[in-house]
Structure formats: structure tokens, C-alpha cells
Amino acid sequence: MNPTRFATTLLAACAALILTGCQTYNQQNTGLAHWRNGNVELAAKEYSKKTEKEKTTKDSVIWRLEEGTVLRAAARYEESNAAFTAAEEQIDAFEEKAKISVSRETGAMFSNQATLPYEGRAFDKIMLHTYKALNYLQLGESDKARVEIIRAYQRQQDAVEENKRRIEKAEKAAAKQAEESESTETPSKGKAKEEAQQQADAQKSAEQAKSDERFLKQVDTAYGDLDAIKAYADYVNPLAVYLDGIFFMSNAADNSDLERARKSLERTLALTGENKFIQEDIEALEKVTAGQPISPTTYVIFETGLAPVRDQIRIDLPIILAGSLKVPYVGAAFPKLLYNSSNFLHNVTISTAERSEHTLSLASVDSIVANDFKNELPTIITKTLLSTTIKAIAAYAANKAVEKEDAFTRIAVALATATAQAAVNIADTRTWTTLPKEFQFCRIATPEDRKLEIIHPVSGEKVSVELQEGTVNLLFVKAISANTPLLVSQAKLK
Q: Could you give the CA distance from residue 444 to residue 352 in angstroms, rounded to a whole number?
């Protein structure tokens, strides 16, 4: 192709690309503003509309998760579970595809992570089944809730092994690419030799960047706060573990269910530290195991605040260019967690005629998300290094190829390659944003009149509740922020 015509075509294509391809997830997530303001119905409408639009795209899973959460808050439990089930089915399909070969992972090594399908993270899968279980309880379908509680437990067991396999596959893909980098033979599968050479150069440059002092200092500054976050055991969600415990204690079919409840309650106690409510549960379980009926009990599950979002930051990395004595630094987009550390309720008070209790921390979503992010970070860094470097080397090659052409062509190619890099240089900021910051809980003896009050710690607002019939009741309270109304709903555990 004529260089001038090529430059003009490339410039036009890249202009279109930057207009359509560079929105981050946060920029697309317009429903979150309604959610933050406590406008649940508007948020549900926005997320359902977005999910319908994105149902066959690479982002279908994350939009389904957001939709399911908001529909649950709107008390539309069947629709919420339909959204979660659709996400689950897509996640299962991705997991099956992931088992096929290393070649898929090798291709992904050089791709911008934001352009790849969102396949669901470990905490997504665990929380998805936990919310489905709670929805089924609120629909009065205890048997289906039991299935989801078991699945949530299994997801936690599987997550550690899945992470090991993911790391092994990434290492094998990198090793395979390194072997190809050392080969001088024409690449297989019709891959152009020039493209293969660029990938080889990118591989070498990325490896050298990992030991670059300036790069390492930026990484340490950006992600040093992860070490300060409270860590649970890998991929454990204390809410899911606790729900497992109280469900099987309340609905035990045999001694094996009671033993399962004991293990889950003891595990929750180990995760949360000394906690009077869990101690009371363990004492209650001992009585049930001894043949005594379970006492009328009400559990309050309190969701407060908003989960972390992923922001985009710039970290400069060195690009080693063949035939060049200069080592330019190129800005790469990396994800970073931002915590919603203000405007949330630290607890609520549950008051009956006989007793008042404050909710206590059960599961920090901040910690769960941060731990998952920390485990994923080495892979994020490697893939971002590779994808950014390959684009920088390709841009260098394109500009090198026209350095003897006329000024217009050189300027056009320089502008086009810069535009193309900017359009795809975005971090993967997709994460489940409608989750709460923290799950809290308390347990109280169900009052004889079945009446209690939920007291807002800031406004002093009191929400009066009359508990539905049941031996073991669940009361759900949600505060999206310190300024939004309390959302209250119920379910029967037994």
C-alpha cells in the first residue's frame, strides 16, 4: 500500500477506535450513581437495561452480577436469582473452555485485559451462590437454598486449586512464548514472522522491566497498601461459612448436618476472632446435638456501605527497542482498588423490650476483594507489561518504516500509532461494585411479642419490625450509605 494512503487509513481507523473503545467499566457503570444515592428502583431499571444490551458481550457476567444485587435490594427475588443464574451459567461455560489448552492463555498474554471476557473472580462465584441462597430463603424455598449454600462452600474449596491452575497455565504460556522467542524458524499457524519477532522483543523487554528500579518503586507505591488490609484465608468468605453453620444447625436432617454446622461455626469464629454471638451459636448447637429443640432465635444480617471499585492509574515502564540505544519509558494503565472509607454506617442497634444489641463485623468485603486482587496482581503486572510493550514495539516499527517518507506521512503515522495506543491502553476496572463494604450480624432471642426496632446510629431513625412466624428468623438490613434509608426484609430459616 502507498505509505501516504496507509497513514490516512490508519489515522481514520484509530480515530474511530478511540471514540468507541476506550471507556473504562467505571465510565459505563451509570447505574452506580443511582445505587449510591439509595434510588434502588432507578438503579434496577438502569442495570436491567444495561444487562439486556450487554447480554451477549464480553461483559455479560459482571452486568448480571450487578443486576442481581440491585434486584435483590428491590425485593424482586425471583428476578434477582434469574440474573445470578445467567451469570453462573456463563461462568461455568468459561471454566469449561479454560480446560482446553495453553494456546488460549498464550494469546491472552499479549491482549489488553479489559478487552477479554469477564469470567468471574473467586469472590464473585462464592457471593453469587450466597445471595442465591438468601433469595431462596426469602422465597420460602429452603431446599433450593440448601443447594446454593453447599455450592458456595464448594466454590471456596475449588478457588484455591483454581488459582494454582491459573498460575501454572500463565507460567506455561510464558514459557512457551519464551521458547518461541528464541526460535528463528518461521512461526506456525500462519503467524507473520515480523509479528512473532515483535512478540519475542516484547517478552524480553517485559522481563527486563520487572527488575527496573524505577518501575518497581512505582509498583510498590501503588500497591503497598494491600499488605495493610486484614486477610482471611485465601478465598474464604466468612458470611458464606456462617450461613452454612446456622442453616445446617437450624435444618439438620441428621448428625452429619450437625457436625457440618459445628465445623462451620468454629471456622467462622476462627475467622472473625472472639465473638459472643458465635459463642452463643456454638452453645445452642451443643443443646441441639443433645436432643433439645432449638430456641426461638432471630439473626440480623446487616449490609453496610459500598465495596471497593477499581480505578485506573499510570505506571511508567521501560521499553527495550532493538537497534535503539535509548530506553524510553511508556505509561501503562494498571488497575488499583479504591475503598469507600467514608459515608457508611459502622453498625446498627437492634432493640427489643428485653435487650439491645449492636451488630458486629462478620465479613469485610474490602478484605475479601483486596485478598483476591493481591493474588491476581502478579498476573496483572505480567500481562500488562506484555500487552503494553508489544503495542509500543509495534508503534516503533511502524514509525521506523516511514522515517524516509514525506512529513505528512511521518506525522500521520506517529499520530495514528499514538492514538491507537491511547485507545487500548486502559486498565481492567471491572469489579462487582454493588456489593456492600461489610457484612455485620447479631443474634437475639426472638421476643415473645415478635416486635423489635432497628435504630439508625446517625439519624436516630427507628424502624419497627414485626417478625413473621418462625422458630429461627432472618432479618436483613441494608444501608447503602450513611444518608440513605434502611432497607429491611425478612426470611424464615426454620
A: 9
Where are any strands of DSSP class E within 150-191?
none
Burial of 39 (0-12, 13-18, 19+ CB in 10 A): middle
Residue 15 in 3-state DSSP? helix
Please tell me the distance from the alpha carbon of residue 255 to that of residue 481, in angstroms, as a whole number. Answer: 42
User: Residue 406 CB: number of other CB atoms within 10 A?
Assistant: 12
Three-state secondary-structure class, residue 442: strand
Q: Over pLDDT 70: what percentage of the chain? A: 76
pLDDT above 80: residue 462 = yes
193-198's contacts with Cβ under 8 Å and 24+ in sequence apart are 194/397, 198/390, 198/393, 198/394, 198/397
The C-alpha atoms of residue 307 and residue 258 are separated, in whole angstroms, by: 33
CA dist., res. 135 & res. 153, Å (int)? 17
Cα 278 vs. chain centroid, distance in angstroms? Answer: 28
- 239, pLDDT greater than 70: yes
- The sign of the torsion formed by the CA atoms of 276, 279, 285, 291 equals negative
Indicate left, alpha or beta for 454 from its phi (over 0: left) and psi (-120 to 50: alpha).
Answer: beta
Q: What is the mean pLDDT of the chain?
A: 84
**Distance separating alpha carbons of residues 249 and 262, to the nearest angstrom:** 8
Rounded Cα distance, 283 and 200, in Å: 63
β pairing state of 472-479 and 297-304: parallel
The CA–CA distances, whole Å, from 192 to 103, 184, 189, 299, 413 equal 17, 12, 9, 63, 21
Handedness of CA 10, 16, 19, 23 (dihedral sign): negative
Provide the pLDDT for residue 103. 52
92 and 457 Cβ atoms separated by less than 8 Å: no
What SS3 state is found at 463? strand
C-alpha distances in Å from residue 477, one per residue of 44, 348, 360, 474: 18, 9, 13, 10
Three-state DSSP class for residue 133: helix
